[in-house]
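Practice problem: predict the structure.
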Amino acid sequence: MLFKKSTTAAALVLTLWGCASHKTESKKTAEATVVPEQKTVDFKEYFQETDSKLATLTVEAQKLGSDAVEYLASDLFFKATDSSMRGDSQMAAFLYKHLLTLKPQDRFIKRKFALELIRSSNLVDAEKVLESLFKDEKGKDESIGLVLGGVYTALEKKEEARETYAQVLKQFPRSEEACIFLAKSYGVDKQFKKANSLLESCSKQNSKNPIYSYYQGKLAMHQNNTNLAIKFFDRALAIDSSYYQAAIAKGMIYEESDKDETDQKKGLKKAIVVYKNFLKKSPNNYAVLTRIVQGLFATEQFNEVIPFAEALSGIDASDLNLKVRLGILYTDKKRFDDAISVFKEILAAVPDSDKVLYYLGALYQQVDRYDDAIAQFSRIPSSSNLYHEGNVQIAQMLMVEAKKEMHKGGSQKVSRFTSFVEEKSKESASLKLEMSVILTTFHETFNEYKEAIQSLASVRGIEGYNEGHDYYLASLYEKSNDHDSARKLIQDILDKNPKNAHALNFLAYSMIEKGENMELAYSYVNRAVTLKPDDGFIRDSLGWYYYKVGEYQKALKEIKKAKELTKDDVIITKHLGVVYKAMKKYDLAKKYLIEALQYCKVESERDEVLKAIDELDSARLPASQE
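Answer:
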């Protein structure tokens, strides 16, 4: 048990510094608690009052004897330590100050006090405590010397800092920190020769430490001597091949050496070589992986970036931006399963991201996993800018499935498709337009022109409907042999703009196909070619005119030019085959007709090309070569 005289000190300590485990019962005791329960506290007044109380308490404990001093010192130490652990450095320093009054020669307490003073930004008081410690130790405490040097530096006492670091180095010749800090101090004053000489000397003391060569390289950089800097960075890497700071510093020289865009890319490519060589020995270094991934993206070396991006993502799984870029790279490389896996990870981290939902849905769509794709697109909220496009993609997939079922004579998926289109058409004018166009395409596929026309015509004039839709509607009228309605639509466009090349071409082609008013048709198509000489479709119409009037060489010339301008169009490719057939060059005719089959998108196009092939095969003339 504590001797009786200490009870006064103990009572005062518990009253002043009572915590949650020492609850007071009386109102009087509660009011005496150091940290009041009021919401607002005047901390300056609070510390002054407490400082006075502790000073009085310390004096009383000293009067009571050593046991009272030990009791109070122990209590102050535990509370100071607790404050430090909670990050309250101001309170910790305050307590250590009073603790030192009780134990003025305790160097451990002095260290703690100095540290808390530094943490609370009280460098002036910390300086005094550290100077006392360093003097007591006669300069033989390396850690105290380094901290004191740092405080001197922060207080802009550079001579005192240098003297302290030099004293540490004298006692500890292999002190890395003292050498580097002293060299940095010289470097700040541009005493490069002195700094370099010091680092060289330190390097000889510890030849297996690359840090000295690295800082010599940094000094050379400050002197704009990049060749010398590279030499030192290379020496650091020769000492320790895993010293990534030197690899990055060398790479940054190349990255930042050139100013114009072309030279910047050349510099980046040189830096990438440096990073690659480093990663051969240290493949999982995060800092260098970050640099090389950024460099490969910047230089558009997408084929090479994937393995490095994978390694980087494996180290830092929380970097969602990197995962997104990696997922896009997988997509570009058609590694869809890998891309899906990455975007599923991203979605797990940000489950409500409309962009991730959309991209994941698009990936599932790429690999024909329509149910999964629809599930993702369906999760996009109506408030998102991607909601519209997500529903368009759902409709497109449902249409594909409905088409497959139609060919087999089923109706369940057709019903699902049409119900979805009908439901979404009610939500907004823009969705109604998109849904109508998709439904129109579906009917056109099966030559249901009446239904197709009805679907598209029903949205004519609503917001978003444009000339492109009128062209599509006119083409449907053409296919249903309602030429008057088709030409009326296009004539309306032409009346608004007589120089509309596409409208002129449409009217011309309609007449050419039917062999009507060929002179006017030629006039239209010739004007269209003059307006848009590099339009493959217009060139094809001119070639088709020449074919219709029997001028096959001119037809071949124009349609070949159209084919060069628009390589994968079914009509142009079919026309080329038909012209070769007319010229009795059957092998070439069959070549282009078969190619045209590859470009067919709707049933009607396929039927027309197959008919042309049948007609070619029925020809009895011997095949010829061009």
